[in-house]
Amino acid sequence: MRDLPDVDDLLRSTRVCALPMRTKFRGITTREVVVFEGPAGWGEFSPFVEYDDVEASSWLAAGIEAAYLGAPTPVRDVVEINATVPAVPADQVRAVLACYPGATTAKVKVAEPGQSLSDDVDRVAAARELIPHVRIDANAKWTVPQAIEAIAAIGDVQYVEQPCATVEELALVRRAVSSPIAADESIRRASDPMRVVAHDAADVAVLKVAPLGGMRAVLRLAEQMKMPIVVSSALDSAVGISAGVATAAALPTLDLACGLGTGALFVDDVAPSFIPDGGVVLPRAVTPFEALPLASSERAEWWRDRLRRCHGILATR
Ligand SMILES: O=C(O)CCC(=O)C1=CC=C[C@@H](O)[C@@H]1C(=O)O
Ligand SMILES: [Mg+2]
Prior knowledge:
alpha/beta; Enolase-like, domain 1; 2 domains; 36% helix; magnesium
């Protein structure tokens, strides 16, 4: 990677934080994140703990870009966000939506392991009664026949995010249902995100700054993909969300609400969370609090080692 800062430079300001969450999301109730400071501000390194070092190193590249280069030039002052509804019981949907004041779009998680299709139908129906636009996210958990059955049972939605695991399956589902299909994992975890375009597998691209290697990488990919973009969080702290909001604010065209309101899922954050007001958040730089919810010294050492290894990978790129 060009202009890679020295690893000791990164480690000098590194803080390893453990952020408690309001509800279980992605199977976790505490989100660990690393933040560090560079000449342009703060950056985040928070790849999910199960990711290997090669995948995690893109997240480090994104944090370094934020801290050493800063945000791209914005073309808009506000970014509309969607409410993110975890796989909660239907009677809790109202309380979740209340955490996203003014949001007119909700993304509802479906296909949660251990739950049934009727749980999904009920949760989505509850959201539909309360908010104008509803999209769903299956996180690649359905087979093609399951996706077709579930989408028919759930009814029309704004889009279905990542119904199945592969690009080929997304393309099959897309041809079989009337709701639009969005690709997330097929872009952020793929060796070639453009396969989604080549296979005509999606109507919408969900792009996440940290897994895709940074704000400018997302802007370049958005330009190549030539389809509507949704910038979404990677369950980042306020530092990572700041990079997501800056990216969304710099996109030449943005017609859909972005998944950048996930600060509402945290009890504690490293800086004031991006909580929507009137359904939008404003681009801003973020400086972490003096007193941070620090992780244990064991976990801090684990993260510092991981950062060192990922830095080593970036040094070879
Ligand atoms: O898009 C949103 O509304 C919020 C972000 C979000 O849903 C996710 C963030 C990070 C990891 C994922 O499991 C999840 C997603 O799949 O989109
Ligand atoms: Mg998703």
